[in-house]
Amino acid sequence: KKQAYIKYICTVYGRQLKQVLKFLQKQDESLLEDIWTLLKAGRRDEACELCRSAGQPWRAATLCPFGGMDHFPSVEALMKNGMNRILQSIELESGIGRQWRLWKWASYCASEKIADQDGGKYDTAIYAVQCSNLKRLFPICTDWESACWVMVKSWLDVQIDLELERSQPNCLKSNRNDIDESLVQVDGGSQLLVGAECWPRPVLMQQPHDLYALLQKLHSGYVIYANYLRGRLQLVCLTILMPKKLKPDMMHEAVSRGCKEQHRLVQARKSNYFLSNGMNLMVGDIPHLVDLLWAWISPSEDAQKIFRPHGDSQMIRFGAHLVLVLRYLVADQIKDTFREKLMTVGDLILHMYAMFLFSQNHEELVGVYASQLASHLCIDLFVHMMELRLNGSVHMKYKIFLSAMEYLPFSFEDESRGNFIEIIDRVLSRSREIKPGNYDDESLDVAEQHRLQSLQKAMVIQWLCFTPPSTINNAEVISAKLLLKALMHSNILFREFALISMWRVPKMPIGAHMLLRFLAEPLKLHPSTLLPSDDHDTSENLNEFNDWREYYSCDATYRHWLKINTENEDVSHDLSWDERQREIGAAKETLSSSLSLLKRNERPWLVYLEDTTNESDEPLYLELHATAMVCLLSGECRRPDATSCTTLTNALYSSVSEEVVLSRKLMVDVSVSAMDTYCIEVVLRCLAVEGDGLERYESNDGGILATIMAAGFKGNL
């Protein structure tokens, strides 16, 4: 029974001891991981304090043998840390850096011994990083950043070691040339390193020649390490292995995979190694870097005309900010050939990022990057954005307006930079371009299509009606200039809309009324301040705008009567007396408003006050170009042909007398439009005479050309 009881006690105790040891091992591993993290962050003092607080002061002594931040054992450091004078004398007699090398040796031996006994990856790495032992550091590197850090730190520490050795006149120089010369051939073709004084050559052999070679090695996947055989430090076997052939404890798979990620990988070259962005930056290969970034994010040939970003959004953002950093921080150090590449390809990258911001509804940020583009790219970008957001919300459109105002000059200052005036002029011009319509569907009303097109043309005026931010210079002056430009362009559109709205339909000309709506509020806010009366052009544009406002008010009364008239025509035999009186009243109101407009005493309607005097003896001609459509009264569109063009030409000639044709040298030309086969191009030309093109207009009716055009519209030709 005693034996059984003792056996039972031993079994229970053994299990408990095993559990305690397992718990302690996990706790120790956690401590070592924290120490490794602190060492990577450069917080060695905190790592040492953590060791002491965990009851491992001996480990703190191995990490910081000379105390404090003075890791190098100089006499000053030894005195500061209260070291014995014996240590000071040993340091002076044995040479500067002797104690330093002994500590490196001890760390190296510790990292090798712990690794051979499977003592834990963190315990191994803590001592391996003290002596630049890459062989024992790579297994703990599970990502690209860690691998890059251990290589750079090890390389830097080795450079310090070499400088210390070169400062010793009696010490063997362990530079790269010495190592190459000390390699001898042995049987089997392998190379061995000989020599009694070989430190720090075992570690040095793992290091690259320079920073370029360091990054090259990291991205090629080649690892050079020393393998000591039979415990003899004199024999060093140099082994070069590809990543796929490496042992599991050498290079983590995640590191090799990270080298192939887009933001790491740059280009596979003939020598079978890869370069990184950081490498191109460090070695100054700017042209290759920007070419590479553009190759990643550039659209395919099939998608060149699609206004959206391509490639990874993070890469686009990185490329844009890298271009700005290079332009502003190292511009003076870049060669002219490189600078041209940085400007041309850099503009493409910045343009792509601006498109990305626009696609993510960050219009307020676009101006920051668009302002760095070449003038033509900046203007094209804002024009395209304004056209795409033409029917967007007011808030979204104002963000684009604000972005352009805050980051671009208002008017031309520098040919290398875009400006707001050129952008808005391009938008206004493109909005009036004739766009082919769809008239194949018989159910589509031509008049309705023109009404909708006029609305799109009117929407661009809203860009000029926004209030500039008060933070920019001369905000009030800029606001007045925008309002004047809005008036000028609105008057042009009013003239056009008056022509295209001459169809006898009850629907309102929505384009014209949208213009009146946009400009109502800006003109109401201190017009005397924004529009000085002493400016002749301003007064003329404001008077014409008021004339058109009154005209479209009369037009609204006309459409109201036309609507009543059209409704009554359908049920003319069942109309009551009240309905007839309602139609008559609407007709009288229309006539009254029209006559009051045409017979104003204070200022005739649409009269240009300036005289047009021909000081030259050469005859002056008037020429009018118009785009028109041939339609039935029902609104159905007819496709023109050569016969109909000839017929229309003869009809227009016959709208005036033969005497007028000869005396005014009238020329009429009608042809099918090249842009829209459903439209015709009408060109009228005649000699200008006094009262019609020269001096003041006598009848204010537009002269002979307006008479011919009126015959075409009102004569139902």
Automatic annotation (TrEMBL):
Major localisation: nucleus
Keyword list, A-Z: Membrane, mRNA transport, Nuclear pore complex, Nucleus, Protein transport, Translocation, Transport
* Presence of the UniProt keyword Signal in the record: no
Cellular compartment(s)? Nucleus, Nuclear pore complex; Nucleus membrane
Membrane spanning segments where? none
Q: Name one GO cellular component term.
A: nuclear pore outer ring
Gene3D superfamilies (UniProt xref)? 1.10.3450.20, 1.20.190.50
Q: Which family does it belong to?
A: Belongs to the nucleoporin Nup84/Nup107 family.
Matching PANTHER family, A to Z? NUCLEAR PORE COMPLEX PROTEIN NUP107, NUP107-RELATED
Name of this protein: Nuclear pore complex protein
* Organism expressing this protein natively: Kingdonia uniflora
